Amino acid sequence: MFKKLVSLLIGICLLLGTTAMAAKEEQPIPERFASVMEVCNATTAAEMHQHLIDYINATWADYYTTSNLPFPVRFGGTTEDLIADKRNWAMAVVSTKDVDIQKLLDSNMIKHWSFSSSDPSVLSLWLIPPALRPYRPRDLTQSYDIFYFDYDAQTDDATVLIFNENYPITETLFARALLDMRSTEQKRAMEGIARVNGWTVEELIAKPKDWDVAEVLVPYPDGLEPLDQAGMLLDLSQSDYFASRESFEHISDWWTEGPNGIYSADKRFIGAPVFPFTLFDKEDHALILIVNAKSDYADAALRYAEYCIKGMDDVMFSDIDAWESLALEYSTELWQ
Questions:
Q1: Phi and psi of 113, rounded to 5°?
Q2: Count of alpha carbons within 13 Å of 92, Cβ hemisphere only?
Q3: Could you check whether the bond before residue 221 is cis, i.e. omega within 30 degrees of 0?
Q4: pLDDT (tens digit, 9 = 90+) per residue, 124-162?
Q5: How far is the C-alpha of 168 from the C-alpha of 203, rounded, in Å?
Q6: Which of 63, 68, 179, 229 is the most core-located residue (most Cβ within 10 A)?
Q7: Model confidence, pTM
């Protein structure tokens, strides 16, 4: 037992020492990735790291936490470079012109988990055009931490964020923050819709052209009323899935209530709870997914909302055997 403890402590020291050395010898960021640095208002990897932590804490503090542990980011390099340097980076920002994602998948280089249709990487990959993901994992029972930041159609070159299976500490919140910090135009160009998180009701009303679908934390059950009075909430019952969605009662000791939706005074379906209540609620607040009725992209946003909430429902309310079958169905659709 003592030897195992000593080995663990030595491993942690080596990890921190290696990371500190990497930070001390930080290299300039290639011009190719200037758009990534501009989004987070940074000029160095260390500055980017801090700005992302600040954004995560401001946007998702009620649901997630992150730390100041070293999180080395590699910018650029070839497939061979990433593999050779696999012990020194947690997230890589790369060009699809330089990196063969299929080879990284085949080499077990990309972080993976049991497949979940509600996984942030799955939701992001589902939104991008299938032509941008010509690769296919060998194991369809897994989700893979791959996120597309932008794409230049003229050069057929995409900027991709990937996470390292061989590095002990990875945190995809950094990728989610980078995607979230993009402009409305950048989001729509890459994903077809603009998703936003952490905006207040007042911000959503003030910027009707800047978002298509949003996760908003509001008082339950009437926190969406100002948005509805402003005519900004799409009736989700236009979707067959939302129209037929059922409520859940006493799901478990943690999830005691799961209403199928949030309704307006005139009984329109104006929002869908992202989680069942009591696990992630804050006092009398709930995290609600809404679609912007004033958006020119409302149809695509509704399709995304349906996929997102249905995936969460399937994860939480299916038994193991049923979920394994559903997961394979979702995964096969994603990678076909």
A1: -140, 170
A2: 29
A3: yes
A4: 999 999 999 999 999 999 999 999 999 999 999 999 999
A5: 38
A6: 179
A7: 0.88
